[in-house]
Specification:
21% of the residues lie in helices and 37% in strands. It has a nine-stranded antiparallel beta sheet.
Length: 255
């Protein structure tokens, strides 16, 4: 298969009422600097005054074991302090500063990509200066869209290009679905995962979930990762995946 041509300048439909419930950037990279509770906590309190809600975060490690003739065991070990979770004044922006991971999450209302990327990279620069990672193991962006469906009979084909259904000649009533696709991008170091699902939000109301996750597959040197350039490519893939998954009526409803 020929390599995919990524066009970061391609225009996509502008949705003034975008159904994005959460947008997130995650970078997995082990800290090589001195990652200690007192120093990291104080540095973040000083540098992130616009994120006043800060709290230490412990790391847990789980182990599941099964032995013949015995009940399965699940043990959870508390590994102690691992980082800080910081929330903005309105709690719409959340950042996790952990030894092996940085995560920035923007909750609804989502405004625009430029603002999301700028804040994510600003916070990453703070994390990077404190953690001093040598290698970025994984870079990922994830956009979770929640679309409320009208009450009564719903035509899913008005909202999705892929429409699930009950098996042929199966005497049952369709009440929901969960479907996930994972795809690799030829010629590039990206995979894309798309999850479509329904949630019951009341006795008769549904919410449609379209969850798009774009992520790298191989490690990169922290010095040579070209994070901003990669984010632009990942944004294009995210938009291609989302707009290629939903029907025209949904796009019109959120313009």
């Amino acid at each position: 298969m020929h390599p995919v041509e990524i066009d970061i300048h391609e225009e996509f439909p502008r949705l003034s009422k975008a159904p994005i419930a959460e947008a997130a950037l995650e970078i997995r990279a082990r800290a090589m600097g001195d990652w200690n509770e007192a120093g990291i906590s104080e540095a973040l309190r000083t540098q992130l005054t616009e994120y006043p809600h800060q709290k230490g975060r412990n790391i847990f490690q789980g182990e599941f074991s099964v032995a013949p003739g015995k009940q399965p065991r699940h043990e959870l070990e508390d590994l102690g302090w691992g980082g800080v979770v910081a929330r903005s004044e309105d709690k719409k922006q959340v950042a996790f500063f952990e030894r092996d991971r940085f995560l920035f999450s923007r909750l609804e209302p989502y405004t625009r990509w430029d603002a999301f990327q700028a804040e994510a990279l600003r916070l990453w620069d703070i994390h990077r200066a404190l953690a001093r990672p040598m290698t970025l193991q994984r870079i990922g962006i994830r956009f979770v869209n929640r679309i409320p469906l009208p009450l009564g009979n719903v035509r899913l084909e008005d909202y999705l290009r892929f429409v699930p259904n009950t098996p042929a000649e199966f005497p049952a009533i369709f009440t929901g679905f969960l479907h996930q696709d994972t795809m690799t991008v030829p010629g590039h170091d990206y995979d894309v995962s798309i999850t479509r699902a329904t949630q019951v939000t009341g006795s008769t109301a549904w919410t449609l979930i379209v969850d798009v996750d774009v992520f790298t597959k191989t490690p990169y040197s922290a010095e040579d990762a070209d994070l901003e350039g990669r984010l632009q490519e990942m944004r294009w893939l995210k938009n291609k995946a989302f707009f290629g998954s939903v029907a025209d009526k949904l796009k019109e409803d959120f313009r």
